[in-house]
Amino acid sequence: MKLKDFYRLAVEVGIKNDPRPREEIERLLQEERKAFEKLEAGDKENFDQDRLFNPFGDSRVLAGDPETEVRRILAGIDMDAAEILLAYILNRDENRKIDLVLAHHPSGRALAQLSQVMALQVDLLTSFGVTPSVAEQLMEKRIGEIERRLLPINHNRTVDVARLLNLPLACLHTPADNCVTRYLSDLFREKSPDRLKDVLEILRGIPEYRNSSRNSVPPKILSGSENSRAGKIYVDMTGGTEGSKDIYEKQAAAGISTLVGMHYSEEALEKAKKANLNVIVAGHIASDTLGLNLLLDQLERESGESLDVVAVSGFERIRHL
C-alpha cells in the first residue's frame, strides 16, 4: 500500500483502540478543524495539517514521499541514525530493499508534540472513577513538565539522516500503545485474575513477555506480593509517558487495587506504595513490542495486505491475528 494509506490506516486503528469514546475524539478533531479555518492564509502554512485527522501528535510520517509503495518495513522500538544507515546498507541489495523505516518511539515534530497526547490519560482515569477535575488539574501540571523537558531536545537529528539518505521514516507511538492497553485490559477483564501471581501468569503466557523473560527482563511485582488480591486492575500503558506522580492516592480512592504498566520511576513507585497500590511492571520494550505487533496485525487485516517486516532495535515481529 502507499505510505499515505499506511499512515492513515494506522491512525484509524489507533482511534479504534483508544480508551476515549469515539465522539470525544471526533470533538477534538472538529476543534482543530475550526481553529484551522480561522487562521490567516500565512498562518495556515505553518499549521500541522495532520492534526485535522490525526489526534495523536506523537505519530507522524517524518520523511519520504507519501506516494511511496510500502512492502518491506524496517521496524524497531527506537530508530536512530544507526538504524537509518542500516536501512541504507540493506537497500544496496535489491532483494532486501527497505521501503519504510518505522519507529515506535517518536522523533522530529512527533517528539516535540509528545506532551499533547497526555490529555488521553485524563479520560482513562475518569473512566475508572477518578474525579474529572482532579485528573485534569494533576495532569495539566505534568503535561507542562514534559512540554518544558522536550523543548531543548535536538528533535530532528534522526529525521535529517533519513531525509539526506532519501529514506521514508514514520513513527507510531500512541496508536500502538492504545492497542496494548486495549488488549491487556480486555484480557484481564476476561480472565479475572484473583491474585497478583495470576496476573503474572497471564502476562507470561503472552509471547512478547515470555521472550522478554528469557532475556532476563520478566514482568515483576514492584509493590505487593504474589498472594496479594488483584482487585480492580488499571492498565497504565498509553498517553505519551508517565503521568502525574500525585495521582496514586486518587486511584486508590476510586477503587483501583493494581497498576500494570510499562515502567515506573522510583518517585512514582514510592508514592504508589504509600497509596497501598499493587504495582506490576510488565516491561517497557516487551509492552512496546506487543503494541506494535497488534497494530501491524490490524493494519494487515484492515488493508488485506501482508507486510514484510524486518525487525531491529528491540522489536520482534509476532503475529497475534
Automatic annotation (TrEMBL):
This is NGG1p interacting factor NIF3. It comes from Candidatus Saccharicenans subterraneus.
